[in-house]
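We read letters as residues; the fold follows as tokens. A sample entry reads:
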Amino acid sequence: MQREKERYVFLKFIRIALEDEFKKRGGNPFVAAGINSSSKGKDVSGASSPKVEQLSQGVSDVSLSSAQDDGEWEVIQRKPKNRAGSSAARPWGPQNSSPRPRGGMRGGAGSGRASGNAWAMQNTDSSLDKLSIEEINNPDRQWHCPACQGGPGAIDWYRGLQPLVTHAKTKGSKRVKLHRELAELLDEELRRRGTSVIPAGEAFGKWKGLKAEEKDHEIVWPPMVIIMNTRLEQDENDKWIGMGNQELLEYFSSYAAVKARHSYGPQGHRGMSLLIFESTARGYLEAERLHKHFADQGTDREAWERRRVLFHPGGKRQLYGYMAVKEDLDIFNQHSQGKSRLKFEMRSYQEMVVKQIRQMSEDNQQLIFYKNKVAKEQRLKSALEESFGIVSEKLRKTMEENRIVRQRTLMQHAENKEEMDTQEEFFKEQIQKLHDARDEKEEKFEKLQQEEREKVKQSSPNPSNTEEYRRRADDIAKFIKFQDEEMESFAVERDKLIKVHEEKIAAMRRRHWEEEFGLEKEFDAELNQLMEKYTPHSSKVTTTTTTTTTDA
């Protein structure tokens, strides 16, 4: 009944909207009057007054679901939306060709179609209500726009419902209000069906999973497991005694509980015990594992509350266990006062367990990363230590060899120096002898000159007369003068000779030092090559890097 009411409101709205639109256009509709299912004419002109009635009657045949004729949005398998000029020039009238049946397309191809436009949404074979959600969202189905009926755009096809809804929401030139309200009605109808318009390409391969928010609940903290049926027997005072703390811990030692507690009342042990686990996610998982163990063997909370069996054949008591909740702990503390009451909190499961597990997972990943990193560094360290040991041994051998070579070189140098000193001493003695012989010759030469002068002086006898004496004196004076001039020339030439000799010695010494310097450089280069030949590879790399940095 509600659906029929909604359909009636929808059809009434479409009729009123079309009438308002035609009034705005001056009462000149876009469809011909008097066209029915049997007419074959192609005239598009006609009277004015029956047109609105006929269009309204045609629109009344358009519905999302009709109980009388099962009408449907007309769906024909054709090419996508096409507004070629040739088709626009054709008159608006009924068509004789019957469409190919496909999916939700119209069936029963008869000799004609319903009154109104041949492409309008009238007298279809099935209603939108009878289409499944998959058929509605099928991108291969093609639709006409009912708001464009009888006007421009009425011949357009829309492949899938999404382009039709987009057209209704974005139409901006003709019948804007009608298109917007059509889009709202389509959305409302689809929402009532429990679906929505799915864009093309998204009809398949999409799923709805869990809700975005994570489900959370409160848990007892620290984690605890209730152990039931732990009392044993009554003592002489009719008080119940039961399992002790250490006994309970040892009995469940494989679950890493940290503490055990028992509940006592006026009659002694109440048969209700607790295993308390550490306040971590690991402790909760251990408690949950114990809880699952009890559940797997059928001795969990449900079994205790509905079908408990206290004794096995033979007299052994059957223990029951399950995760503790707040109500269990209230019962546990029923007869406890003050400090004897069990302390606990109600905490968020997401905060205390899930987040801790995630953090533990992240920490574990980081731990694995750092373990691998440390192992890699240890391997590198071992390799470096091994390489360092090999290089150190080679260096020790090289240093020992260098020490021996240096010692031998020093010994050879000392021998060479001694030999050179001996040769130097010998040549110095020889040169000194030459100097002494030269000095002796010069002294003899001077003595010879002196003796010659004395001879000249003494060779002249006493003159017999003054004339002879004067002439002889002149000869002696001339001889002395000549001798002095010769000695002066000798001294000058001797100085020149000494200067030339000294220059030759200086040149010779310069050549000697240059040759000695060249020999030293040559020796240094050869020594460097020798050292590079026997230098370890790592030291070569370091030396090369240092040299490059210095040059830069």
About this structure: Confidence is low (pLDDT under 50) at residues 27-127. The first strand starts at residue 142 and ends at 143.
